[in-house]
């Protein structure tokens, strides 16, 4: 075999009689080209998707970085916090100042109310209110009042400037009489004990604020006598005296004694300690609706004794025995 034949056999496959014939493709060249393109795309689809995802992630990162920079610029820094702290300190100081001014205004208002209350009561000093007094039809109330004062109370020659009926929601008759002298009023009030059991009641004509305070003091007095059955509580117009100490009722602070907390003074004087519920009951006396509608008093059975009773004083229990 020549060199030319060897070279031909090296690079070509010689066709012999035994070489099978190549089958002819049924598809056209264009279809073959499309199939090759589809195979190429299917083989490289994963690469395209990863490229697209990387591109999207890069865009998101860039967007988040830009937003974060904007937010960081808008966030307060140390200087801003210092300025804010200074403003808060100013607001706190201003609030404390306003609270002090409000408290001063409240005290001033209470002082003015006390002055007005005193002046109104002074103007009513010659008046007395009569309850349970019967009169005949078409009869002037002046004569029954004069007769009561002279025959029952022993106060003669009373002069009444005017007298009239006061409308009462309860339906019972009430009459107001204005006398010509405060001395007559005091003489009548000194002898009202003679009316015990008659159903007739006489009391002074006081302004509403004084009546509210007296109502509270009367209820406190009842509790004091419940705790100290041997004690003596002297009731006056706007205060009561217990163990030589004067107790008043402040419309803002409740029971007071020499400008101090009256309940604390009672605890020390009686030798007990009020619970939180009992203190709330005393403070609720400030409200007229509680005084008028609630007759239930707190239970004092659980009061703990913090010191002994004063020497010479005895306190009775419910069974009548002495402690």
Describe the structure.
Strand 8 (254-257) and strand 9 form a beta hairpin. It contains nine helices and eleven strands. Among the domains are: 83-124; 126-204, 2-Layer Sandwich (Alpha-Beta Plaits), CATH 3.30.70.260; 208-291. The strands form three sheets. A five-stranded antiparallel beta sheet has the order 5-6-7-8-9. The protein is rod-shaped. The chain starts with a helix and ends in an 18-residue tail after the last strand. The protein has 323 residues and is of the alpha+beta class. 51% of the residues lie in helices and 14% in strands. The model is unreliable at 289-323 (pLDDT under 50).
Short account of what is shown:
With 323 residues, the protein is α+β, with helices and mostly antiparallel strands. The chain contains nine helices and eleven strands. Among the domains are: 42 residues; 79 residues, ACT domain (Alpha-Beta Plaits, 2-Layer Sandwich); 84 residues.
DSSP strand content: 5-15%
Question: What general form does the structure show?
Answer: rod-shaped
Gap from first CA to last CA = 149 Å
Instruction: Describe the sheet with the most strands.
Output: 5 strands, antiparallel
**Order of neighbouring strands in the sheet with most strands:** 5-6-7-8-9
Kindly report the average pLDDT value: 77
* Poorly predicted parts: 289-323
Helix content: 40-55%
Series of H and E elements: HHHEHEEHEHEEEEEHEHHE
Rg (CA only)? 51 Å
Helices, by number, come to: 9
Give a count of the beta strands, DSSP E runs of length 2 or more. Answer: 11
The structural class is alpha+beta
């Amino acid at each position: 075999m020549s060199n030319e034949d060897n070279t031909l056999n090296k690079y070509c496959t010689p066709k012999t009689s035994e070489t099978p014939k190549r089958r002819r493709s049924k598809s056209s060249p264009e279809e073959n080209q499309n199939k090759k393109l589809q195979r190429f795309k299917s083989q490289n689809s994963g690469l395209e998707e990863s490229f697209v995802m990387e591109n999207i992630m890069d865009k998101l990162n860039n967007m988040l970085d830009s937003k974060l920079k904007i937010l960081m610029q808008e966030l307060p820094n140390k200087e801003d916090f210092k300025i804010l702290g200074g403003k808060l300190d100013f607001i706190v100081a201003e609030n404390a100042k306003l609270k002090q001014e409000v408290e001063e205004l409240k005290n001033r208002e209470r002082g003015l109310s006390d002055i007005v209350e005193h002046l109104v009561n002074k103007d009513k000093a010659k008046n007395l209110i009569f309850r349970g007094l019967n009169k005949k039809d078409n009869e002037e109330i002046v004569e029954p009042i004069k007769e009561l004062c002279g025959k029952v109370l022993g106060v003669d020659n009373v002069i009444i400037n005017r007298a009239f009926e006061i409308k009462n929601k309860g339906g019972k008759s009430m009459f107001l009489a204005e006398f010509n002298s405060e001395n007559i009023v005091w003489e009548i009030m000194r002898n009202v004990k003679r009316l015990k059991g008659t159903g007739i009641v006489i009391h002074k004509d006081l302004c509403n604020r004084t009546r509210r305070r007296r109502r509270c003091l009367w209820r406190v007095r009842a509790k004091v006598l419940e705790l100290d059955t041997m004690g003596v509580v002297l009731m006056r117009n706007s205060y009561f005296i217990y163990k030589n100490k004067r107790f008043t009722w402040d419309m803002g602070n409740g029971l007071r004694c020499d400008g101090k907390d009256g309940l604390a003074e009672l605890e020390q004087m009686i030798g007990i300690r009020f619970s939180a519920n009992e203190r709330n009951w005393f403070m609720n006396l400030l409200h007229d609706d509680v005084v008028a509608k609630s007759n239930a008093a707190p239970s004092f059975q659980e009061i703990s004794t913090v010191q002994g009773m004063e020497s010479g004083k005895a306190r009775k229990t419910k069974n009548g025995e002495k402690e």
